[in-house]
Write a structure and sequence with these properties.
four-stranded parallel β-sheet, binds pyridoxal-5'-phosphate, 10 helices, alpha/beta
């Protein structure tokens, strides 16, 4: 695809090379380099919602998210690049000053509608109702959760070279990306998710439900101790790690998802979680635009 979307940018970058000092090999798949706003896993999760919308002659996309949502930014720009209109149902009251994420969405032509925090969960749970409210618009559930989102995410494993890894790690919000990886993984690959929400009891079931829809019995692991207090929570240790990681490898991460993911993989390596000789791949799922919600100066990149 043209339009500034560059799948060929998605290189595999080595972080730790297996040698006499190091027992394992750790690489990162740089999906963050696809596009600044349709970044990482969002490109893949939206792919089939978009093609469904185009095939069925819809005039636009409608979806949900918060004021800093990577998903909302990606939906807005995806619609624009494909000549569709878009509606964003945003959680919370309309702010006096828009976040840079909402500014970007508005610039891409997204019609932003603010939904109260009481009403939002009810709307989000009922895609059929939303379809009735916005005829002509393809409804995309929050975070792209659904069979179309999973099937798009499964294509992440089609990048050349990805088949050789024993362990594939990804940050989890709704778990849609992880479901896609589990769906497409080869027998020898262990798919592991690092949830960024605090012990979400629903997450494992949500992933199993998606896999059941395609009659797939796939194994996966969730490691629930790297959420740093919950969604969008962080501390000085995490930011310090992210700065170090950037200074050492030139890989920027975001504090909501990929910073926690890389911290987790690094911590697991230090604590000898992996057998010697393991080949580990962390999926950099993008999300860098969200770092704009941090106070300036916190990150060195
Ligand atoms: C949205 C997002 C995720 C979460 O993906 P899910 O499929 O909802 O689990 C992970 N990383 C980044 C950077 C994201 O923007």
């Amino acid at each position: 695809m043209n339009n500034g979307i560059n799948l060929q940018n998605c290189t595999i970058q080595t972080v730790i090379q297996q040698n006499s000092d190091s027992q394992v090999n750790w690489d990162v798949l740089r999906l963050d380099l696809i596009h600044p706003l349709i970044s990482g896993n969002k490109y893949f999760k939206l792919k089939y919602y978009l093609s469904d919308a185009i095939k069925s002659g819809q005039k636009g996309l409608v979806s949900f998210g918060g004021a800093w949502s990577n998903h909302i930014a990606a939906v807005a720009v995806t619609a624009k690049l494909n000549g569709l209109s878009s509606i964003g149902l945003i959680r919370g009251e309309e702010p006096a000053v828009f976040s840079p994420t909402l500014e970007n969405a508005r610039e891409a032509g997204m019609d932003l509608k603010f939904i109260s925090r009481e009403e939002y969960p009810l709307m989000n749970r009922d895609p059929t109702k939303i379809a009735g409210l916005f005829p002509g618009y393809q409804v995309i559930p929050e975070g792209g959760y659904g069979e179309a989102g999973m099937k798009g995410a499964a294509e992440i494993l089609q990048f050349e070279g990805v088949q050789q890894y024993d362990y594939i790690f990804v940050a989890c919000g709704t778990g849609t990306t992880l479901a896609g990886l589990a769906y497409a993984a080869e027998e020898h690959q262990v798919i592991t998710g690092i949830p960024v929400l605090k012990n979400p009891a629903w997450e494992e079931k949500a992933i199993d439900d998606l896999l059941a829809r395609v009659k797939k019995h796939a194994g996966f692991t969730l490691i629930n101790r790297y959420h740093f207090g919950g969604y969008a929570r962080f501390n000085a240790e995490l930011l310090h790690f992210m700065n170090d990681f950037y200074n050492s490898y030139g890989i920027p991460t975001d504090f909501v998802y990929t910073g926690k993911l890389m911290f987790a993989v690094n911590d697991l390596i230090i604590n000898n979680y992996f057998p010697a000789g393991s080949r580990i791949l962390a999926i950099h799922s993008g999300g860098l635009q969200g770092n704009r919600s941090l106070k300036p100066g916190k990150l060195s990149f």
